[in-house]
Amino acid sequence: MPVATKPKRTSNEVPTLVTVDPSQPGASQANIHTRWHPEIPCVATIEVGKPFRVECLDYSGSQVHNDDNADDIVHLDHDSDHHLSGPFFVPNSQPGDVLEIEILDVQPFPNHNWGYCVTAPELGSLDDNDDPKRQTKVTKSIWDFFGNETSSRHVPHVSFQGRPHPGVLGTAPSHQLLGQWKKRESELEIETAGKAGCSLPQSRGAYVGQDISDELRERIYSEGARTSPGREHGGNIDIGLATRGSKMYLPVYIPGASLSVGDLHFCQSDGEPTTAIEMAGIATLRVNVIPQGIRQLCMKSPMFRTSPTEPLYRDKICFTGLSVDRTGKQTNQNGLLAYRNAAFQAIEYLESFGYSREQAYILLSAAPIESRVIATANRPNFVISLGIPTEIFDFDILPRSEGITDQEKKRIIQGPAIPSITVDRKVANGFNHEH
Fold this sequence. Notes:
There is one protein chain. By secondary structure, this protein is of the alpha+beta class. 16% of the residues lie in helices and 26% in strands. The chain contains seven helices and 21 strands. Strands 2, 3, 5, 11, 12, 13 and 15 form a seven-stranded mixed beta sheet that branches. Strands 1-4-16-6-14-17 form a six-stranded mixed beta sheet, with no helix packed on it. Strands 7, 8, 9, 10 and 21 form a five-stranded antiparallel beta sheet that branches. A hairpin with a 7-residue loop joins strand 19 (370-375) and strand 20. The longest helix is centred in the middle third of the chain and has 17 residues, at 175-191. Residues 424-435 have low confidence and may be disordered. It comes from Kwoniella pini CBS 10737. GO terms for molecular function: hydrolase activity, acting on carbon-nitrogen (but not peptide) bonds, in linear amides.
């Protein structure tokens, strides 16, 4: 049983259960972990029904810097995955229960008011090995925060309201569930000859900041599940709607739940084809327990409730995609292909105004883009739409009969250059994990 930490405070004071330094490497800080495992010791005990704060590093563990150089992205260690704060013990929670997690607030650190978005070969869902026009460069864009608004010197003529949220909220798996994850993901890797890109367990990059025995550390590092994919317990499900005022519902698999949080985003599109606007910051949460909630809610995977305070942009230009590949071959209701087709059309449209492919790609990941499933019943096509808010631009992006003028294109092209590096795709092999 973990030792409860109950700092002295007034009745109205919200306790901070984990503190971090966003200027220091994650692998040097206490109360941080980069793997899922049921034996990672809890660092504090949550008071059920009471608010608490958790300070979080950005997903990379402070590897990315606020500058105009993308070298740090080339050398980014993806094997460490997400640097998560916790885990936290939830009293009276038992396997079969469900945690109701209220997201009361998510903010950047006051002295760290910036985030970043990344593109790279084989990172995300819109890179194409077979089409030179769709091969992605390594880039980094820095986004500055002004209250709840953000803009980037590397993606000009755009600003929008953020929807800050935790990309990762997860409970610890049981040993049985941990084994199921390894089995099914290993089988998929074999079936696809490694093309699925599953992040299988490995000791390199594993980290637990607690003081534990060498034997336990070795076991966690060798067995622990990587944090890249979202799974039944939550984890890296990257729900952009999980902003202030929303609720997450997560299953409990071990006594005490062992809840962890991290990978904060300032904003993210629906679909997040590459990284969101990643940031370090502070999450304020409140947890309640629903006894035997898995059975009561018929839960097979996480659920969430949207927020009444989410910023909405109502005027959008929308692109649709079908389940037809770029050679014209019809597929049977391939939803990912339909999404990619909608996104590629949107990227080409933004390129027509003078944005680079990477700048357009970043907008489709970082901005409050709305993706919808339009139709699934009309075989063989699966129809997806992708909507870009027109209001986030300081110029008119709507279709017009006279077309786009050279002056408009020049205005974009002459803006600040995005830090980019072209690397050999073999060198960039480490970018095949999604975050």
